[in-house]
């Protein structure tokens, strides 16, 4: 029986870690995001009864093919940032030029800084069809709040809203710290544990 007690050896860093890395693509939240960004389960429809002869909204000029075309044009982009840019190309954001009192109580009037005009693509490209916000959202399968955020960011920054969610922003910094720790560990020596050899052969303890 060999006795390794008292023999010190240099530290050898293992190339394979024990920590199991999660599969990001299979995470439930990622699955929901892919479905949401793909337009799955959504059907483009016209949400109003406006007509060209009586309203600024010309939804009656849109055909079923036009709705499909707008829907596919949006969801051919797989990321939210790209979709926001596609939405912005169908919106005209303008500063409010004049205000008219529409309510009796002045304090109850909304002080909007910008006003938006909404358009959808038609078969007569590049002519766009002006529509109301309700039909715009229903045809693209998006919420009014998302449209408002896209338009407001553009009004304030003159560019489409970038994607700032998620992402490993400190990967480089963490790699540098990890390397410093591993380099420091390798300055020590190690010794096989008398109590750990039987149940965990190859396990060593640092000699500090």
From TrEMBL:
Entry superkingdom: Eukaryota
Annotated region described as Disordered, given as residue ranges: 1-36
Gene: LOC122135486
Official protein name in the record: Uncharacterized protein LOC122135486
């Amino acid at each position: 029986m060999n006795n390794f007690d008292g023999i010190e050896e240099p530290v050898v860093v293992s190339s394979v870690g024990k920590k199991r890395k999660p599969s990001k693509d299979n995470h439930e939240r990622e699955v929901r995001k892919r479905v949401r960004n793909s337009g799955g389960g959504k059907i483009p429809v016209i949400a109003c009864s406006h007509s060209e002869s009586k309203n600024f909204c010309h939804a009656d000029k849109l055909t079923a093919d036009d709705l499909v075309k707008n829907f596919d044009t949006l969801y051919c982009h797989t990321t939210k940032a790209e979709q926001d840019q596609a939405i912005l190309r169908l919106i005209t954001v303008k500063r409010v030029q004049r205000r008219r009192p529409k309510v009796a109580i002045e304090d109850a009037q909304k002080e909007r800084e910008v006003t938006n005009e909404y358009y959808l693509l038609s078969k007569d490209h590049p002519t766009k069809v002006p529509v109301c916000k309700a039909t715009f959202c229903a045809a693209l399968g998006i919420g009014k709040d998302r449209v408002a955020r896209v338009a407001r960011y553009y009004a304030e920054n003159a560019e489409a809203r970038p994607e700032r969610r998620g992402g490993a922003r400190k990967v480089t910094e963490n790699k540098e710290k990890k390397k410093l720790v591993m380099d420091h560990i390798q300055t020590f020596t190690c010794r096989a544990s008398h109590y750990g050899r039987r149940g965990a052969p190859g396990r060593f303890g640092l000699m500090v």
